[in-house]
């Protein structure tokens, strides 16, 4: 979707929401079954406030430091929730345990262990998605699909982590067949986990789709689309994609 006109953030949000609803309907799905998660990374907290004033309460950030900073600037909005959607280093687990409502990028027992310990100390629990590397070698983060069931089994030991589903970033680029294959791989994995009695938690949620591919993701069963650019406008170049894709 091309959305380059300098319109306000609420108008852009509404346009994306309408596109999400239309994609769901085309796929024979209910629009209310697809969450739109605005991703505010690199953008000023004023834009978060503007959307919050219209009733939007959950925002995605891929870096813990930035999310925490924005959280601290918005403590006057008690219903504001932060979803951390990017890779976590164990030394940041304490921060996530303190303020995040969701963590969508769990991809190791090591991080699970660090989070569990900190969550216990805070007396909190956290909704988590397991991040799947659905695109092969290109991405630095997420587990290959075949390794996800083993992690799901190990997570039964972590009471403070509520596994709600899977998250993925499809391969970047314009080839829809390649993107679709990524989403289908995750959906297939979801089916396996739903049937797997040894897997911790539930796997009803599929966080898939960003500005460039959310309509396709919804067609492939996404229940949460993470949209930055189409709502907040372009980000400075080389900010985030390098984080995931070593070279393009
Ligand atoms: C930045 C980011 C998004 C949003 O990307 P856009 O292409 O700007 O919509 C989604 N998911 C993750 C994990 C991100 O880091």
TrEMBL record:
Its cofactor is pyridoxal 5'-phosphate. Keywords: Pyridoxal phosphate. The modification N6-(pyridoxal phosphate)lysine is found at residue 41. InterPro entries: Ala_racemase_N, PLP-binding_barrel, PyrdxlP_homeostasis. GO terms for molecular function: pyridoxal phosphate binding. Residues 16-236 form the Alanine racemase N-terminal domain. It comes from the Bacteria. PANTHER family: PROLINE SYNTHETASE CO-TRANSCRIBED BACTERIAL HOMOLOG PROTEIN, PYRIDOXAL PHOSPHATE HOMEOSTASIS PROTEIN. Belongs to the pyridoxal phosphate-binding protein YggS/PROSC family. Pyridoxal 5'-phosphate (PLP)-binding protein, which is involved in PLP homeostasis. This is Pyridoxal phosphate homeostasis protein. It comes from Desertihabitans brevis.
């Amino acid at each position: 979707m091309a959305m380059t006109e300098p319109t306000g953030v609420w108008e852009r949000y509404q346009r994306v929401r309408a596109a999400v609803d239309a994609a769901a309907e085309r796929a024979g799905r209910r629009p209310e079954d697809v969450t739109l998660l605005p991703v505010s990374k690199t953008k000023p907290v004023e834009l978060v406030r503007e959307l919050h004033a219209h009733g939007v309460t959950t925002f995605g950030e891929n870096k813990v430091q930035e999310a925490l900073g924005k959280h601290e600037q918005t403590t006057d909005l008690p219903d504001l929730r932060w979803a951390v959607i990017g890779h976590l280093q164990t030394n940041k687990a304490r921060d996530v345990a303190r303020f995040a409502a969701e963590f969508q990028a769990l991809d190791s027992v090591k991080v699970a262990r660090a989070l569990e310990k900190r969550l216990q100390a805070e007396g909190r629990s956290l909704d988590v998605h397991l991040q799947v590397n659905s695109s092969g070698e290109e991405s630095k983060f997420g587990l290959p699909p075949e390794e996800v069931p083993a992690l799901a089994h190990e997570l039964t030991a972590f009471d403070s982590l509520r596994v709600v589903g899977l998250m993925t970033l499809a391969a970047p680029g314009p080839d829809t067949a390649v993107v679709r294959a990524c989403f289908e791989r995750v959906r297939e994995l979801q089916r396996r986990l739903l049937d797997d009695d040894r897997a911790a938690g539930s796997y009803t949620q599929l966080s898939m789709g960003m500005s460039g591919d959310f309509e396709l993701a919804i067609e492939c069963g996404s229940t949460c689309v993470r949209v930055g650019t189409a709502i907040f406008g372009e980000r400075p170049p080389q900010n985030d994609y390098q984080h995931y894709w070593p070279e393009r």
